[in-house]
């Protein structure tokens, strides 16, 4: 777990930059989502702001996913750059009213401490599509046509249709 103590960092400087390599076991990506086989490179730039911190996060890496059509395993590039506003969790009890600009905020669980592995895990999960495809024109499992190629194939229920027409023809 890579935790940055922002209070200590900003006693020294008004800007922080760092590069890190996170191992797959540090990121702890849920196995039902995908699998990291190689380390993920992370570049961080943090500046202090009035209500918190501005974090520029650069992620470089690949995740192994299973295609939802053909069930083949493939690698997806999850490299991206994000800018986030980090704030301490509000201390007020009860209902908190959020404004649209508040939806862009990431709240830190511990005051002035940010867990980089957790942020990277969150961004990787958000970058994975709900229905991962190895390629846009994936035809699915061979022999179980999905109709994407434009040709008409009989599906697995075609035999039932044939039984129904034979029964009606025999009356």
Would you spell out the secondary-structure blueprint of this structure?
Blueprint: E1 3-5, H1 6-12, E2 15-22, H2 24-27, E3 40-49, E4 52-60, E5 62-66, E6 73-77, E7 80-88, E8 105-108, E9 113-115, H3 116-127, H4 158-169
Parallel strand pairs: 7-8
Antiparallel strand pairs: 1-9, 2-3, 3-4, 4-7, 5-6
Question: Which features characterize this protein?
Answer:
five-stranded mixed sheet, 4 helices, alpha+beta
Q: Give the averaged pLDDT, no decimals.
A: 84
Query: Helical region count?
Result: 4
Low-confidence stretches: none
Order of neighbouring strands in the sheet with most strands: 2-3-4-7-8
Strand content: 25-35%
Task: Please report the distance between the alpha carbons of the first and last residues.
Answer: 72 Å
Overall number of strands: 9
* Rg measurement, Å: 24 Å
Biggest β-sheet, characterized?
5 strands, mixed
Indicate the percent of residues in helices.
10-25%
């Amino acid at each position: 777990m890579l935790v940055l103590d922002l209070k200590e960092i900003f006693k020294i400087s008004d800007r922080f930059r760092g590069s890190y390599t996170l191992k797959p076991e540090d990121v702890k990506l849920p196995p039902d989502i995908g699998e990291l086989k190689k380390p993920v490179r992370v570049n961080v730039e943090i500046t202090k702001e009035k209500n918190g911190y501005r974090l520029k996060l650069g992620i470089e890496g690949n995740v192994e996913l299973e295609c939802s059509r053909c069930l083949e395993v493939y690698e997806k590039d999850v490299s991206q750059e994000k800018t986030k506003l980090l704030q301490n969790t509000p201390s007020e009890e009860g209902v908190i009213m959020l404004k649209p600009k508040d939806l862009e905020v990431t709240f830190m669980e511990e005051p002035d401490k940010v867990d980089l592995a957790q942020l990277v895990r969150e961004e990787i999960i958000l970058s994975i599509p709900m229905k991962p495809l190895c390629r846009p024109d994936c035809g699915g499992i061979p022999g179980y046509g999905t109709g994407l190629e434009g040709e008409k194939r009989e599906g697995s229920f075609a035999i039932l249709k044939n039984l129904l027409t034979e029964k009606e023809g025999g009356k």
